[in-house]
């Protein structure tokens, strides 16, 4: 089934919350996300950091807030397309068609209404600028998602939170992991960093830092560590060095832009009927790129999208406290 009442581009915090609100109103919803996991900037850029201004949380780590949003949405079982980059938007008989680029090729999804919650753009992983990157043929740029077998020798290159997480997860899957980074500093939650240190001290996970990744070779990789060249024989490698936001995939769409923002009017509407915008991408927040503003816009966009698809349903949702809902 490739049709949903409402399709949401972007499964960051705002997309997740908008999806929850659409589902709460009883409509079907599909989320399309270019990354292999939900959470947008919170998961990709600062999962281990505390947020102090999320409504109702005196302080919460970004990855925990994502987990709460995911749990709030989970009982409604939305369609979730991960690793799907939305490339085009066209008017069709059933509403709007969004075409995506996925690992298996192009796919098309239709919906009565679309909510754009694409934030600062698709978060695309940085590509290594070292010799022989195509030689190994198995350099993954994202975590989660890389397939590794127990016993495989794997290099994880990078100091971002995904690198620490990947090194620990791969170790747990039975891989023989080398973690390397240009600085002797890794990011992660205190629990992850403690565990990394323990595994390193026990000689169960090799850490080469500070080190320089010189090249990928047909056998593996070459690194400069402690003033000596090291040749690693590898079965796979992950290069995890952060993300660059990319709005290009949306810029050909027939939308009205104000710089990096899509112009939004009443009800978070755009210049296209049945297409709404919320969160960092919306002009309504001005330069106020904050979760609190994005969540409010998500609720407004979702309820207007619901009314657009089902004019018999009012925009006003009533109070959720009057409902009885399944909990996770
Ligand atoms: C380091 C840092 C710290 C921050 N701290 C705070 C804080 O303390 N408090 C606060 O309120 N805010 C904070 N923010 C800002 C907050 O993270 C953003 O306001 C919030 O993430 C916006 O949510 P969003 O869902 O609109 O966009 P995003 O989080 O950017 O999510 C958008 C999602 O859409 C996906 N996407 C984009 N284009 C496409 C496409 N074409 N196809 C498919 N998927 C697509 C992206 O991959 C991404 O996952 C911080 C931001 C950063 C970078």
UniProtKB/TrEMBL annotation:
GO terms for molecular function: ferredoxin-NADP+ reductase activity; flavin adenine dinucleotide binding; NADP binding. SUPFAM superfamilies: FAD/NAD(P)-binding domain. It is an enzyme of class 1 (oxidoreductase). It catalyses: 2 reduced [2Fe-2S]-[ferredoxin] + NADP(+) + H(+) = 2 oxidized [2Fe-2S]-[ferredoxin] + NADPH. Binds 1 FAD per subunit. InterPro entries: FAD/NAD-bd_sf, FAD/NAD-binding_dom, Fd--NADP_Rdtase_type_2, Ferredoxin-NADP_redctase_2. The keyword Transmembrane helix applies. Residues 5-292 form the FAD/NAD(P)-binding domain. The chain crosses the membrane at residues 6-24. Keywords: FAD, Flavoprotein, Membrane, NADP, Oxidoreductase, Transmembrane, Transmembrane helix. Belongs to the ferredoxin--NADP reductase type 2 family. This is Ferredoxin--NADP reductase.
